[in-house]
């Protein structure tokens, strides 16, 4: 299948580790010019060196706790360099914990880092997408959009908000050749999953190894996903081959989500 991504420009957020890093690499391998976004300059430089050298790759240093600064930096980059055909919204999830004990600050921080940042990035990138009559906005969220996950109260709440924001936006921009979709990773071998396993093990007075086995057993595939497996789905959604897929949630979870 020809994905027709050669020389497209992509803005990939949270791209120094996990699914973000894997997505940046996967897109670059399809001929995309990738601009990485994260807050650690040294890590960004290291990932930049992993991308194919014959492409026009770059990075933006930004902190997702400040959406206005993020927006200004992206707009400045677009003005000085180029616009983006593809936007991959991806930010580390809120910390674990029950919803009843969550502070207002936790909700506010998660709302800023996820929904607000997604929104300002969409506003910054969509004008170019409209001009090109081609745009792909892909949000990395969570299977909690379909089924809330116990012990992730703030995350469940904010992910749902992002899902509804995405669906609403998809209806508004579809006529311009722009699609907006959500990818819902299941248990994926990332630093985030390692943190969750440690917390679950501590809360249940068991070992990390035993909790790992328990969580793998909850997935029909009986294993965790590789970040690259999710990145492959993102890459397909970013392509011309996915031009009529819009406004949906796609779980990449080995069958763990029980709902259709």
TrEMBL record:
Pfam families: adh_short_C2
CDD domains for this protein: BKR_like_SDR_like
Superkingdom assignment: Bacteria
Record InterPro entries: NAD(P)-bd_dom_sf, SDR, SDR_fam
UniProt xrefs under Gene3D superfamilies: NAD(P)-binding Rossmann-like Domain
Similarity remark: Belongs to the short-chain dehydrogenases/reductases (SDR) family.
Protein name: SDR family oxidoreductase
Source species: Flavivirga rizhaonensis
